[in-house]
Every structure is written in structure tokens, then in C-alpha cells.
User: Fold this.
Amino acid sequence: MPHEHRGRLVKVEPLVERILVASPRGYCAGVERAIATVERALELWGPGIYVRRQIVHNVHVVARLEELGAIFVESENEVPAGATVVFAAHGVAPAVYENAAARGLRVVDATCPLVTKVHSEARHYAARHFKLLVIGHAGHDEIEGTMGVEPDASILVESLEQVEELELDRDEPVAYLTQTTLSVDDTADIVAAIKRRFPRTVGPHTADICYATSNRQAAVKALLDEIDFLLVIGSQTSSNSNRLVEVARTAGVGGELIDDERHIDEGWLEGVRTLGLTAGASAPEWLVEDVCSWFRARGVTDIRQHAHVAENVEFRAPVEVRPA
Assistant:
């Protein structure tokens, strides 16, 4: 891209030669449903709707909903008695529902249906006296909810090493469940290790890792032979966004997680000819557009979509906010 310098045109080299934008990327059906749930609650009942934890793990989404009048709290105990509270997409433990009922709160449950499926599996296996090995990350909101479904039967497993350290009898009836936003490859390795140690292991009929997590990881893998570096748009608290960076790094391709274009370090791009760009399942598309505009302002004109699979999943809104 030329620009004028002291009366003459000087050619400025673009920051990178081209950008391949992964598809699918960004919002999944569960995230869209959760955000729309808060928006609809605000339309129905006005500002002052409480939301327990981040509705989805993205700082920009939370900030926009706060501007509309949503109030984010860490616990249902912070919600005034009788007020309306929305439970986030990651799900909550049964004790949270019980506490909300005791406080007279009007609950709107925006838990992703795929997380609800995992909770149902936990109840199913625990009722049949299986020990539950829950694969996931300690402290994540989703894991807190899943572990809380059957706390006495549940053991958190975060790594292959922890599988080997489990002090259970080899013939113990074991069932595994997984957080929905994990690395597909890492989870497969952990499940294989569990099955090797405990031959009677059973698991869900369909994978707990959600379609959107799997699709976004597969879309990144499809890029890796063509790119020199990957940028992932998503917040640090977003598990699925962090996994996308890991997918690239595991394959030997550099990658970084950014909240928006302001966090791009041009030093990352030295020697990069083709850049990959994607967004985690809780990152809105307008952030992708802003990043692309940032690169266009720096001379990059070759920005193209790299489609992998199409998505057409939709979830119905919670009954409390559906149109009459």
C-alpha cells in the first residue's frame, strides 16, 4: 500500500501477505442462546436483571450486557430476595437451584443444553453406583456445576498423570464424563488411559465435547499446513479459546490468544507470510471484523475465508423468556 512521504509515494509492505480466517468460528448455539436470554430478560423486566457469573467467558460480551442493565454477581447470595437471576451457559450445581429457591429468586436458566446433557449423565451413572471420573479443569464454572450434581461420586481428572494416581480398584465400576470445551485429542488420550486402567469403564453414547468445540478445533487443524502463525480471538477465561491456541502450538505452529486487536503484538508477526485467524465459541463476530480492519489498515488486502464444515445448530430459548 503506497503512501506519500515528502511529496513522493513510498510503497509500504503489508504486515503479512495474507490472512486465512477459519470457519466455523465464534459463537456457538449455546452461547447465542445464553446471550439472547439475558437480552430478552432485560426487554421483559427492564434493567436490574442479575446474572450469576459471566454469562459466557468473554469480557466484551459481559461489558455490553452491563451497559444494557445486567448486573453480574459471583453468587446467587448476592441477588436481592425476590429478584430475577439468570444462570450462565456453563451450568450450576443443584445446590445453587435450591439456594435460589430458598431466597425466592425468579430463575431463568441459560445453561447450554449440551451441559445439561452431561448433568443428566452424571445422575444416570451415579444412580447405578458408578464412580464418576469427570475430565476437565479445576475451578472452571462448568466443572463446578458438573461435580456438584453428584459430589460424593465424582472425582476430577485433569491429566494422564492423575489417571495413573487414582486409588480405585481395577474392577471398580467407572464412568467418565467430560467438560464440553476440552481439547479433543487430549481428552481422547485420557479416556484411553482410564479404559486401560479400569476395564469396566463406561461412557456416554455421544461425546460430551460439544460440536462447536470439535468443529473449531478441526477448522484450525485444517489451516495448519498453510499458515505460519495463528491468532485466536477470545478471553483468557475461555477454555475453548485456549484450546485452539494449544492445537496450533502442539502442531509446531505459533499461536496467541487476544481479546481484541489492541492486544496484537506486531513482533509475533516477524517472518509470518500467512496468518491464521479464528475466534473461540464465546467471541462475537464483530471482534473478528475489527481485527481484519486492523490488518487492512496495515496494508493487508488478501483476507479470505477458509471453510471447513457448516454449522446449523439452534437451541430454543428458556421457557421463561419465550414469546407467549
